[in-house]
Design goal:
Chain lengths: ~400, ~130
């Protein structure tokens, strides 16, 4: 894992910006997110800070790996993104130095702000913390097998191991409106995604197809809520907050609908968790099944077994566990910029397909694993094998998968 | 991305005690595979070559990133294994050493590092190599 730390304070960052600049905040979603100083959540914080200080942030752009120029070049041709990137004058890049240079190489006419310094390689450990084990030859630190904690590295090298929000006390909220959720009044940002707003206020709404960093499609229908004045049930993931909204997120009727949807998902294929490599508390579908206490399915289960695609180098596609939420398709389009996934066929025969409905190994997949991290079930999982015996026979590893 | 290059086979072989070492070969399946120095094929090739030279290779593991603890926890070693041959970069080997302190670690790769601009004025590119 590449280890980078922040080299600019928030004040230093602001000194490099002008109020006329059209700013894009760019973040890599791999190493720097694992370290805890990058990713979509951090971009959101920086956007909020800059907007509060009067800067014009026009876009947040998440990329699965910023050190692959081909993925960055997609932003020049993507029909929705290219005009925004054309207008932008400044890109603040949250990535390692290699990732920053790849952005500079593609967007030669933009001012690219380098706010992070790469120091070497290291380990990500929940127990021991994030560590730098092998600093680069030009970094004034010695290698250590057990690693050096990043806060110690930051102190020694006069860098920051935290994100920009650590520099200021509190980010004040602007433009708040009043809404009512389940009979209680709350203040939240106008135009914010309703599902995100409700979850932030402590109202848990079940969902499977929604990811905050992606566009919303309302495919799974689990996040349906009741909104006063709106006809029928409304998917909260595709609704924005407005002044005076009165919302019900949970009642007996909604519970029944959600339970029925979950049962239908379970009936679509045989979701046998015993055979799923992703069964170690990483499955969002399994979490919901437990949460709703589902112990039987009222519908006839589709017993058809679809072929598993093991032709890819880095991950496996098991269509029998796919719930057609479309997260992998959207993340491949919007975050990776590869457009390698899509749905094939129609109705009950709909399946996830790679490339032009080919084997994964024959497609243009760059194996950034963004789709694997996005998958809410075990339909996409990393290739992890244990090879045994004289014939070196591979067996799947059932265990911890990083999500 | 931390790029790697393979060590010479004889160098790897010198680090192995053919009589006493019982080996598991572990390969990273991310940066190392993209550097074409690891992954499923290279893991199989190295294990086969070692086996032909009478080295006791018991099994092999292909895991996504040995530099992340949660992945390394998937490696359940056979009780007889005392040596791990690593197709991983320096930080993957460091993490494995910490994770399996009683095992001998044999790194089969060398770090090449990251190619970046070393001198901003001249735009001169060069390799930054992790110290071992």
């Amino acid at each position: 894992m590449i280890i980078s730390l922040r080299s600019l304070s928030y004040d230093d960052l602001k000194k490099q910006l002008s109020k006329d600049d059209k700013i894009i905040i760019w973040s890599c979603d791999t190493c720097i997110r694992f370290i805890g100083i990058g990713g979509f959540d951090k971009m959101k914080i920086l956007e909020k800070m800059l907007k509060h200080d009067g800067y014009n942030v026009i876009k947040k752009e998440l990329i699965s790996v910023s050190c692959v120029p081909e993925l960055i070049e997609d932003r020049l041709v993507d029909k929705e993104k290219k005009s925004i990137f054309k207008d932008a004058t400044v890109i603040i890049v949250i990535a390692c130095e290699e990732g920053i240079e790849c952005v500079e190489e593609v967007f030669k006419d933009k001012k690219v702000i380098r706010a992070f310094k790469t120091l070497g390689v290291g380990n990500i450990s929940e127990k021991r913390g994030n560590l730098l084990t092998n600093p680069y030859d030009d970094v004034d630190l010695e290698p250590k097998v057990e690693g050096i904690l990043l806060n110690e590295v930051a102190k020694k090298l006069d860098l920051y191991d935290t994100f920009f929000d650590a520099d200021i006390e509190e980010i004040p909220e602007d433009g708040l409106v009043e809404i009512t959720i389940n009979g209680k009044k709350f203040k939240c940002n106008e135009g914010e995604n309703l599902l995100v707003a409700c979850e932030a206020l402590g109202f848990k709404i079940p969902h499977l197809c929604f990811m905050e960093c992606l566009s919303s499609v309302g495919a799974c229908r689990l996040c349906l809520v009741k909104i006063e004045g709106m006809r029928g049930l409304v998917p909260s993931c595709t609704t924005n907050v407005r002044e005076g909204m009165v919302i019900i997120t949970d009642d007996n009727e909604l519970y029944k609908y959600r339970r029925m949807i979950l049962e239908l998902i379970l009936a679509s294929h045989e979701h046998n968790c015993l055979f799923c490599p992703n069964n170690n508390n990483n499955c969002e579908l399994q979490d919901l099944i437990y949460q709703f206490g589902i112990d039987n399915i009222r519908y006839k289960v589709n017993k058809e077994i679809l072929p598993i695609d093991i032709s890819g180098d880095a991950f496996i596609i098991d269509p029998n566990r796919c719930i057609l939420c479309g997260r992998c398709i959207r993340i491949c389009e919007e975050v990776a910029g590869i457009h390698n996934f899509g749905f094939a066929n129609r109705g009950q025969k709909t399946i996830l397909s790679a490339g032009l409905n080919q084997d994964l190994g024959k497609t243009d997949c760059v194996t950034c694993l963004a789709c694997v991290y996005a998958c809410p079930t075990g339909a996409l999982y990393e290739t992890m094998f244990h090879y045994v015996g004289e014939e070196w026979k591979p067996t799947k590893i059932y265990g911890n998968y990083k999500k | 991305m931390n790029k790697t290059r393979p060590r010479k086979y004889n160098e790897i072989k010198k680090l192995i005690d053919v009589e006493n070492d019982v080996i598991s070969v572990i390969s990273c399946n991310t940066c190392v595979r993209l550097s074409n120095t690891g992954g499923e094929k290279k893991l199989r090739m190295l294990a086969n070559r070692l086996r032909k030279d009478n080295v006791n290779v018991v099994d092999g593991f292909l895991i996504t990133m040995p530099c992340v603890d949660s992945y390394l926890e998937n490696v359940k070693l056979h009780h007889s294994v005392n040596t791990l041959v690593m197709l991983a970069c320096s930080c993957g080997c460091a993490n494995t050493t910490t994770h399996f302190p009683d095992k001998k670690i044999v790194p089969a790769l060398q770090d090449r590092g990251t190619e970046i601009i070393l001198d901003v004025k001249t735009n001169k590119k060069g390799w930054r190599v992790p110290k071992v």
